[in-house]
């Protein structure tokens, strides 16, 4: 016998329906439209012309796309090693330290800036003849590197600029995780003589594992869609040597008016981001089998 819906269930669905409809309009319909455009040739005027997989073929055979994909991989690696690693180190060093919150505060201030704001600040520092070059000249360095003009140096210094912004929030998240660790296992470990690296590897790191998975997952997603800092510092140049996938997508769509190719890049970037997030979080958060 079919289960009949109660008046309460129908009322609940009525309250939920506006939110579901709003999400469908603002999220799912644009996503479906983007997927459709990726199979068309469309310049924003008239009607899209169906061309099948041509945009995807062009995308994967374009040297500029391959370069931006490699830069994006470099961003993923760099933003995992630098801001996450330094954030963890700061959290560990200031965790049980008196006034530790004041030591962490300077690292949090850059997080209040927008990505474009960070790009403007670091462009002033790293541009040719900028603040860093002038400081080096005071020490006798007359031929400094071209920080924002040579690849892959420009991508590396932009990763450092992004890390300057992201270290503080990672330190804050790790500090919250450390403060949530029960005192009993820490006290027992110290009584057994554990301290320093041994305490970290045996007690702290295993207990921080769920939070670390979230922090790393967020860093992966943020690095895959890096746009604002690159746009603010180099606009992907010189030429296209410092472009990321998100920046290439933007340029193809809104600068070159190639909405089909831009949509194909957007679909590819979305799929890669979802796969990376789901696979990483499933691997990290799944229960470990006992040996």
From TrEMBL:
ABC transmembrane type-1 domain: residues covered: 69-280
Membrane topology: Multi-pass membrane protein
Cited Pfam families: BPD_transp_1
Location in the cell: Cell membrane
InterPro entries: ABC_transporter_permease (IPR051393), MetI-like (IPR000515), MetI-like_sf (IPR035906)
Keywords for this protein: Cell membrane, Membrane, Transmembrane, Transmembrane helix, Transport
Transmembrane segments annotated in the record for this chain: 12-36, 73-95, 107-125, 156-178, 199-224, 259-281
Taxonomy, superkingdom: Bacteria
Family in the record: Belongs to the binding-protein-dependent transport system permease family.
Protein name, UniProt field: Sugar ABC transporter permease
């Amino acid at each position: 016998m079919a289960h009949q819906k109660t008046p309460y269930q129908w009322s609940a669905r009525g309250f939920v329906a506006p939110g579901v409809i709003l999400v469908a309009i603002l999220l799912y319909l644009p996503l479906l439209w983007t997927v459709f455009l990726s199979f068309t040739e469309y310049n924003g005027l008239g009607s899209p012309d169906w061309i099948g997989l041509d945009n995807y073929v062009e995308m994967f055979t374009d040297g500029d796309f391959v370069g931006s994909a490699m830069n994006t991989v470099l961003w993923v690696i760099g933003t995992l090693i630098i801001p996450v690693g330094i954030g963890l180190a700061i959290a560990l060093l200031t965790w049980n330290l008196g006034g530790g919150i004041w030591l962490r505060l300077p690292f949090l201030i850059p997080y209040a800036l927008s990505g474009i704001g960070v790009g403007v600040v670091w462009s002033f520092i790293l541009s040719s003849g900028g603040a860093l070059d002038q400081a080096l000249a005071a020490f006798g360095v007359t031929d400094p590197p071209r920080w924002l003009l040579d690849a892959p140096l420009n991508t590396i210094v932009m990763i450092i600029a992004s890390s300057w912004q992201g270290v503080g929030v990672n330190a804050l998240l790790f500090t919250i995780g450390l403060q949530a660790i029960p005192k009993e296992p820490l006290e027992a470990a110290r009584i057994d003589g554990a301290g320093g690296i041994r305490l970290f590897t045996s007690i702290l790191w295993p207990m921080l594992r769920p939070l670390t998975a979230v922090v790393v997952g967020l860093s992966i997603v943020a690095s895959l869609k890096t746009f604002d800092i690159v746009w603010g510092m180099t606009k992907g140049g010189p030429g296209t040597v410092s472009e990321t996938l998100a920046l290439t997508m933007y340029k193809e769509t809104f600068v070159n008016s190639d909405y089909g190719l831009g949509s194909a890049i957007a679909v590819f970037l979305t799929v890669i981001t979802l796969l990376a997030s789901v696979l990483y979080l499933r691997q990290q958060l799944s229960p470990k089998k006992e040996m």
